[in-house]
Amino acid sequence: MSEKRAIEAVDEPVTVTSLVDDFQNLGIEAGDTLLVHSSLSALGWVCVDAQTVVDALMTVVTEEGTLVMPTHSTQYSDPSVWSNPPVPESWIETIRTQRPPYRPETTPTRGMGAIVEAFRTYPAVRRSAHPTLSFAAWGANAATIVDDHPLDNGLGEDSPLARVYNLDGSVLLLGVGHESNTSLHLAEYRAAIDQPATENVAPVLEDGERVVARYTDIETDTEDFPDLGVAFEAEDGADVRSGTVGAADATLLPQRPLVDFAVDWLEANR
């Protein structure tokens, strides 16, 4: 969205105060564990951009709750499978051997949006050590959620996603749809469906030295996530709250029922 269109999308500037009101009207409360997926451009014209959204989310959740965002860095994925666009085959080995190590404190996210990139830099935000599938968290249970994130099966049973599940957390889709809903990946690990194995190598730091970590995972797929999300929202008794935040459509969902539903849905439909 261009800045002109962003101005035209709202009647007045989107501010911390207006966002706090919108988030509270949606049902977000102090003390919540909240996993956020977001698009800054969907909100309309935001005064001071991404940090305004982060400040508002922190204000609503408070330090008694926990704010969580995926901070993935796909620049550390296997370059041989990059397709949008692919890189020349002659580059692949150079990329693998010359990439600097992943550093949780400084490595930028890729394709995650401006709100996520701002959030990861805030004081007291902790980021997990997974080179491709990291999460960042702030608040009461930040360490519980992101510390000791295993490299193998990075979105699976001992991942930050599963820890949000154990804490009975919620998912906020802020200007994005279920195609961005990483919690549905946890259901992929739990569902009895065929999931081919993958392997990746990525440079990380160990005792201050660059080392190459090798880890395995499953081949995830988001193609059917929009249909899955629509089915969950239509489920009888689903506690789904929809509203407008700034100019954006927003949806608040309970993560545990969502994941449990998704396991059954994937087994029946994929």
Labels describing this entry:
270 residues, alpha+beta, two-stranded antiparallel sheet, 33% helix, globular
What does this structure look like?
The protein has about 270 residues and is an alpha+beta fold. It has one domain (about 5-270). Helix content is about 35%, strand content about 20%. The chain has 10 helices and 9 strands. The protein has helices spanning about 5-10, 15-25, 50-60, 90-100, 115-120, 140-145, 160-165, 185-190, 225-235, 255-270, and strands at about 35-40, 65-70, 125, 135-140, 170-175, 195-205, 210-220, 240-245, 250-255. The chain has a 7-stranded mixed beta sheet with strand order 3-4-2-1-5-9-8, with helices on both faces. The protein is globular. The chain starts with a helix and ends with a helix. The mean pLDDT is about 95.
Describe the SSE topology.
Layout: H1 3-8, H2 16-26, E1 33-38, H3 50-61, E2 66-70, H4 92-98, H5 114-120, E3 126-127, E4 135-139, H6 142-146, H7 160-166, E5 170-174, H8 183-190, E6 197-206, E7 209-218, H9 225-234, E8 241-245, E9 248-254, H10 255-269
Parallel strand pairs: 1-2, 1-5
Antiparallel strand pairs: 2-4, 3-4, 5-9, 6-7, 8-9
